[in-house]
Amino acid sequence: MSCYRNILVALDGSADAEAAVAHASRLAEDQNARLMLLTVAPYPYQHAGIGVPAPPDLTDCYAGALRRAVESVPPDVSLTSQLLRGNAAETILRAAHDGDYDLIVMGSHGHGRLHRALLGSVSHRVLHDSPVPVLLIRHAAADRVGPELLGATRLP
Predict the structure, then answer these.
(1) What is the extent of the structural domain holding 106?
(2) Using only C-alpha atoms, what is the Rg of the chain?
(3) Fewest C-beta atoms under 10 Å: which of 16, 17, 38, 64?
(4) What is the spatial distance between Cα 33 and Cα 146, in angstroms, rounded to a whole number?
(5) How confident is the model over 99-131, as pLDDT tens digits?
(6) Is residue 156 part of a domain?
(7) DSSP summary character for residue 150
(8) What's the domain count of the chain?
(9) What is the pTM of this model?
(10) pLDDT tens digit sequence for 72-106
């Protein structure tokens, strides 16, 4: 019996989001579950600050990230995808509330407390307010400094 039937994967084109799509794809294969890939393009004014002009519309960048994510999912996994606009955390939470999802999978950027306090964290907000379990995935990049990269010995 499968634990998960419908998995919502929130992505933004980051390495962590790519790792989340890969993990959710394997989980969907194992559980015979359906995936919904969701990306949320912000409105241009969401990036503007005081004295900072609004950048150009980023919808094409998010659409490209969604397209690459769709292409990375194995063909035997049932898949739908959607590109929405708005506040990422609110939109993901609305999708989770409105849909029939058993799990949300998303990347965790690993921002520190200061960044989270100043800018907020989509993953933190979703984790805190989600009506279903949330699985946060980090990309294991070579540029992340861990004990093994510093020459430390790992205990058995």
Answers:
(1) 6-140
(2) 17
(3) 64
(4) 34
(5) 999 999 999 875 555 545 544 588 889 999 999
(6) no
(7) G
(8) 1
(9) 0.79
(10) 999 999 999 999 999 999 999 999 999 999 999 99
